[in-house]
Amino acid sequence: MTITDETIDYVGILAKLELSDEEKARAKKDMSDMLDYVGKLNELDTDGVEPMSHTFSINNVMREDVVTNGDDRENMLLNAPEAKDGAYVVPKTFN
Amino acid sequence: MSKEYETVIGLEVHVELNTKTKIFCGCSTAFGGEVNEHTCPVCTGMPGSLPVLNKEVVNKAIAVGLATNCDITRNCKFDRKNYFYPDNPQNYQISQLYYPICRNGYVEIETEEFGKKKVGIHEIHMEEDAGKLVHDEFMDCSLVDFNRSGVPLIEIVSEPDMRSAEEVIAYLDKLRLIIQYLGASDCKLNEGSMRADVNLSIREKGAAEFGTRTEMKNLNSFKAIARAIENEKERQIDIIESGEKVVQETRRWDDNKEYSYAMRSKEDAQDYRYFPDPDLVPIVIDDAWLERIKADQPELRDEKRIRYKDEFELPEYDIDIITGSKKMADLFEETIGKGANPKKVSNWLMVETMRLLKEHDMDADDISFSADNLAKLIALTDSKAINSSVAKEVFEHIFAENIDPDKYVEEHGLKTVNDEGALRETIIKIIADNPQSVADYKGGKEKAIGFLVGQTMKAMKGKAEPGMVNQILKEELAK
Amino acid sequence: MSLLELTAVELGNKIKNKEVSSVEATKEALASIKAKEERLNCFVTVDEEGAIKRAEKIQARIDKGELTGSLAGVPVGIKDNMNIAGMLTTCSSKILYNFKPTFNSTAVEKLMNAGAVVVGKTNMDEFAMGSTSETSYFGPTKNPWDLERVPGGSSGGSAAAVAANEVPFALGSDTGGSIRQPASFCGVTGIKPTYGRVSRYGLIAYGSSLDQIGPLAKDVRDCATVLEIISGKDDKDSTSVAEAGADFTSALVDDVKGLKIGIPKTYFSEGLDASVKENVLKAAKTLEEKGAIVEEFDLGLVDYAIPAYYIIASAEASSNLERFDGVKYGYRTDSFLDLHNMYKKTRSEGFGAEVKRRIMLGSFVLSSGYFDAYYMKALRTKALIKAEFDKAFEKYDVILGPVAPTTALKLGESLSDPIKMYLGDIYTVSVNLAGLPGISLPCGFDDKGLPIGLQLLGKHFDEKTILRAAYAFEQTKSYECSAIAKEV
């Protein structure tokens, strides 16, 4: 499968990655090689096969509606590149 | 000549469920608190953290699904919706796309224009809420608070079955009442516990195909919804009439300026790359679980209406008003539970309460007085301890400050004077002071007694019981 | 003989018998690390001061009789993708260069509760993406058997640290072979438990449906002992399960009589290094001589495992790694124009080439128009692969094969051609797709003197059978397992 510049740019927007021209050229080749390679799966007839997320059947793992968490915000905020008044600081956003 | 158009509207309604904890962690969902006070590694997306589902969220989602005639998905799953935004700590939201918990339901609405009709519910899914972003003017940056991050939401997606703002509002009102009665959420549009995004398109009347739709966000009141629908309808018609094409996009409504704008961004590909969340396992809902939810289901509005009619013989209109808010219906029943006469309770709610709500531009949901105090007030009037005009005055204080009427009446000396001797003495004096009215009455002008009653009440500072005043007056005038 | 030549259990016994203290053992481990790190680079973080303090506390509790377990007082290295509260946890990535979690991963906490002394965090391929430990932001780890060679990956730091006697044992994680392959390259023993056996809480996710934590150690007994401690249902991980058969050390019996072992013929076809083939088949022979019934059989779909694996793992990784955005923790770029520019610059500067490659691939296979063709197709393939194993396990108790097609590769040899590197995972990834347990243990050396690994695969939640087979095989070994490599 040929990967175009547009595809690389588009995936860059999805993945929030900005590639240099050199990286882009490499990414185009790598992705296209890889997609050709994984295209091997098309040899398999998977019609009617249920997609498998987990290999064992466990379900209904739930917790009771009880408050358990304390306030650990100070330690968490220590990791923030920028914080102010208990909040995480980000570039101006409009919403 | 301009063509005739039809507006086609579908709604995506987000409702915040009122569980004690968040959907995937044990953090409190309480409002208020300091910035980021109710956060933990899970709801701030710390690496290594994992979600664990709150069972009560599933219970409430099933309850809403059953009350809206949905099929419950017996094997439902969570998916990740991937998009970058700072209020979304993992940069993916855990939601449901492929196997939402409820599907294929409907609610019945009634409007003047179109009468009764069913609005289809395409699906209801569970998901987590985002945090809050606040703009900091001083630093020219935004601040992120994750207290609301992970608060459980259900998103109710309707079919494009609505044709007017009136229908949209009837539908929202219906949903609101169902969910409030279930006790799953308080559904306040202005506080964001209920949010509606409007999908709207225009087509020529009679056309089989839908037009291109837009999605309108940021609608915080019924009024805003109605205005935005009107505005968007006009905008799309203008576009079509000028020979252009409507662009499928998300728009944001600015209710102050009464216009909407496109939320377009080059960085916003709207390709959410949904896939099953590998950190969570399927939820298998069996018959027993459904039966439990059904058994626990409280009386819904339509059931209440029938019961009120049978049990209390209230007029249809009064029943509509009282059951038109869960808050008011609860208050009604609780007050009766304290021994008050249903008709009297209904009367207080229908007349004085509604008057004061209107006067203060409030909703029934904003009522803050207790059944206890209303019941006490009714008991005071029943025992003739206070008369009706004093009762009205006291009620205003109950409405505003939820005062205890027993104490209030006591402290302000508002009790009706039941001392017959004192009253008779006053009346004798009034008769002596008003010979003209007495003469009129005796001359056959029965109405003249009204003036004498008024004078007596004035002299008693309103604390006399009108029946008693009448009786003694007549006795004394007959002498 | 140095304390560090002992296995973890042996050292634990000495501590229990008061022949040596936990503090002495910890100091010796720290000294060994200090002496060898310049050449090996097994650790991202060595917490010298903290380790000694912890050892002192542990020793006090041992003295009071509060801690009596087999590993009480024994030093341990933890792969740097497992959270330890307050300790730097980087995933060997620039993007987490300064991240200090506020909570412990469950597996590490269980080890701490059992009295193990964490001395530091081991190096790895960035975000566990790689098979050589060369993609680490903090530089490659070297193989103690030959410093020109890679230790394998992604748990290369853990494997090399054990092989070089820096620590008696370590924890690693395995998404597509990341415990078993470095164990093989470094001549140590490692087990990837059944998916769900060990809590993933606190493990920084790569491919969430494939990741499992497991031990890397000097012998089978150590592995069984560690696994016994770290396994079990955790309320914080919805995918962890309370399965029976977790008394792993009870399986350590030298008896394989009647055990049915299947050898997939397809595992021994082209691409497999001759000396690896010879030694693995020799191991099968040994087990046969001890009474096992060994048979060749056809395992289907072997060639489809790598494509399915890379689609699923990359897709999950692309989503798991979205949270690294310069807002809540870790690296943020110095200058930016606006929010999205900040995201892009932060991530582009913070992630290495291999991580970016997989994020790009993963985002693509999930994107609109390709999801069904790639991601869903891979999940269906996964179901078929699982069914192939189920079928095989109806006949066999254990499947035996190589861990990797080759012994340790030269540094830099595989980075230039990603697909070639991915092909090296052929014997390991299907185990992750099928959620099965697999153990890697040394079974000989090639002509360059490099260790060769033997892989034994078991049924779901039947680690005990592969531990028994591995243990029985280990009893026949005529060579020293731990490298203490001549080079170091």
Shape of chain A: flat
Largest sheet of chain A: 2 strands, antiparallel
Overall, the morphology of chain B is elongated
Radius of gyration of chain A: 22 Å
The description of the largest β-sheet of chain B is: 9 strands, mixed
Q: Report helical residue fraction of chain A.
A: 25-40%
Radius of gyration of chain B: 30 Å
Contiguous uncertain segments of 5+ residues of chain A: none
- Biggest interface: chains and residue counts? A-C, 51 and 67 residues
How much strand content do the residues of chain B show?
Answer: 15-25%
Q: Quote the distance from N terminus to C terminus of chain A.
A: 38 Å
Structural class by secondary-structure content of chain B:
alpha+beta
Structural class of chain A: alpha+beta
Give me the oligomer status. heterotrimer
Q: How many β-strand stretches of chain A?
A: 3
Which CATH class of the domain at 5-41 in chain A applies here? Mainly Alpha
Number of helices of chain B: 15
Across the major sheet of chain B, the strand order is 3-7-8-11-1-12-13-14-15
What's the N-to-C terminus distance of chain B?
Answer: 84 Å
Explain what the structure shows.
The complex is a heterotrimer of chains A (95), B (479) and C (488). With 95 residues, chain A is of the alpha+beta class. Helix content of chain A is 36%, strand content 9%. Chain A has a domain at 5-41: Histone, subunit A. Chain A has a two-stranded antiparallel sheet with strand order 2-3. In chain A, β2 and β3 form a beta hairpin. The longest helix of chain A has 18 residues, at 21-38. The relative contact order of chain A is 0.08. Chain B has 479 residues and is α+β, with helices and mostly antiparallel strands. Chain B has 3 domains: 5-289, no CATH class; 299-411, no CATH class; 420-478, Arc Repressor Mutant, subunit A, CATH 1.10.10. Chain B is 40% helix and 20% strand. In chain B, β13, α3 (222-241) and β14 (250-254) form a beta-alpha-beta unit. The longest helix of chain B is centred in the middle third of the chain and has 20 residues, at 222-241. Chain B is elongated, with a radius of gyration of 30 Å. With 488 residues, chain C is α/β, with parallel strands linked by helices. Chain C has a domain at 3-254: Amidase signature (AS) domain (Amidase signature (AS) enzymes), CATH 3.90.1300.10. Chain C is built from 15 helices and 11 strands. Chain C has helices spanning 8-16, 22-40, 48-63, 106-113, 156-163, 180-186, 220-230, 274-289, 305-320, 339-350, 353-366, 371-395, 418-423, 429-434, 463-474, and strands spanning 43-46, 75-79, 117-122, 169-174, 189-192, 212-217, 260-264, 293-297, 398-402, 438-445, 451-457. The two termini of chain C are 16 Å apart. The relative contact order of chain C is 0.14. At the A-C interface, α1, α2 and β3 of A face α9, α10, α11 and α12 of C.
